Amino acid sequence: MKIVRHAKIKEIVEQNIIETQEDLAEELRKQGIEITQATVSRDIKELMLSKVPSGDGRYRYAFPMEKNVMFSQSRMARMFQDSVTGFDFSENIIIIKTLPGTAQAVASTIDHVKWPRIIGTVAGDDNIIVVVKPTEAVPEVLSKLEALVR
Q1: What is d(CA 109, CA 100) in angstroms, rounded to the nearest whole number?
Q2: Do the Cβ atoms of 72 and 101 come closer than 8 Å?
Q3: Which of 42, 50, 54, 131 is a Cys-bridge partner for 60, taking CB atoms 3.0 to 4.6 Å apart?
Q4: Same domain, yes or no, for 134 and 83?
Q5: What pLDDT, on the 0 to 100 scale, is given for residue 48?
Q6: Domain boundaries, position 133
Q7: What is the C-alpha separation between 28 and 7, in angstroms, rounded?
Q8: Are 6 and 36 in a shared domain?
Q9: CA of 125: how far to CAs of 6, 13, 98, in Å?
Q10: What is the reported pLDDT for 67?
Q11: Among residues 101, 143, 93, 96, which one has the least CA distance to residue 118?
């Protein structure tokens, strides 16, 4: 259902001026998708929608036009500040704790930054496993990740 909903959101945002989460929820309901405000909010984060000027002094939701914009350092910091609740580590693995439903979006930003000491991530609903190589690099990587929430 989530994949279908995300596809509908993409279609709606690309074809309509959507100014608020309520507007998006209303459009989804018109297309037969029942949705809560919390789910709309989570979908917006996961899809990395952002507000852009609509040209008439108002703002609307849009997808980033360029990949480097989608995964900029400032976007990553905002995502971390809005979603990350804690960190822990063991050996060469860092665990990032997030608000429910936000782990995959946070993990995606980490993957796209392509830090050479991070092999990859695995995300659940509210936890992310970050695999670091070599083990000695864990303090450095953890420090960089923690700096994003400050």
Answers
A1: 17
A2: no
A3: 54
A4: yes
A5: 85
A6: 68-147
A7: 11
A8: yes
A9: 17, 25, 8
A10: 47
A11: 93
CATH number of residue 49's parent domain: 1.10.10.10
Dist CA 115 CA 18 (whole Å): 34
Nearest-10 Cα torsion for 4, 35, 27, 99: -80
| CA separation, residue 131 to residues 38, 74, 150 (Å) | 30, 23, 22
Question: What's the token pair of residue 137?
Answer: 């690099």
Amino acid at 30: K
Question: Which pLDDT tens digits describe the chain residue by residue (150 residues)?
Answer: 788 899 999 999 989 999 999 999 999 999 999 999 999 999 998 888 888 877 777 888 888 764 444 556 777 888 899 899 999 999 999 999 999 888 988 998 898 888 899 999 999 989 999 999 999 999 999 999 999 998
User: Do 103 and 54 belong together in one domain?
Assistant: no
Token digits for 15? 């074809």
Considering its fold, how many domains does the chain have in total? 2
How many other CB atoms are found less than 10 A from the CB of residue 42?
19
**Overall pTM surpassing 0.85 (yes/no):** no
